[in-house]
Amino acid sequence: MNANSLLARLAPAGLVFLSSATPAMAQSTTAGDVFVQAGPVGWCIMLLSIVALAVIIENIMSLKRDKLAPPELIDEIEVLFNDEKFQEAMDLCEEEESYFTRVCGAGIAKVGQPFDVIEKSLEEMGDEESIKLHQKIGWLSLIANVAPMMGLLGTVMGMVTAFNEIARSQGQANPADLASGISQALLTTMLGLIVAIPVTAAFAFLRNRLIKTIIETGAIVEDLFERFRPQT
């Protein structure tokens, strides 16, 4: 059987399946039924969705503006700076761990040295902490890329199943024999996209919020240490 005749047999089979699948899926009342029909790849995509949800919730809670740069800490350190109590400010930075205090502490540790040294220390610590924060949300980007690829894998597996059934029946397979493979092909693609689309949106939202917070915090730290810049 050549490729044209094979596709000619498979195309009407797919149309019959699509027309008959809608009532069948409408009768499914649980998400578990969909994942069972999608096969092992569907369960892997479901696991990815659970991991993605956990990462999104954790990042929403930990990457808030008040967590990265608590306003009360900023006020306390500013008061200590105004009173030139730099050791007390350093102790406070070591006690209260946050993005702001770690960057600020790196600058305080260089107080008494040339301003260029202080500025470089602030930049290096800011870059280091920024990379760590971006790595946290980077998992969402990975999941958003892997989910549709897994859906494509399921699609290929489903189509292989359908073609194997055609080969087994020597080209005499009826639509019902192909339904399982075609169902897996369509469902895994759908599930992969269902996971990838919202995860991509969540990644973009968290990344933009993180960048905004880092820029704002950097401006605050810069203002605090501006007093050490030599007057020209």
Q: H/E element string? A: HHHHHHHH
How would you describe the oligomerization state of the chains in this entry?
single chain
Shape: rod-shaped
Report the end-to-end length measured between terminal Cα atoms: 86 Å
What are the defining features of this structure?
85% helix, single chain, 232 residues, disordered N terminus, 8 helices, mainly alpha
How would you describe the overall organization of this protein?
By secondary structure, the protein is mainly alpha-helical. The protein has a domain at 41-143 and 198-228. 85% of the residues lie in helices and 0% in strands. The chain is built from 8 helices and no strands. The protein has helices at residues 3-27, 31-62, 65-68, 71-82, 86-95, 99-108, 115-168, 175-225. Helix 7 (115-168) runs antiparallel to helix 8 (175-225). The longest helix has 54 residues, at 115-168. The termini are far apart.
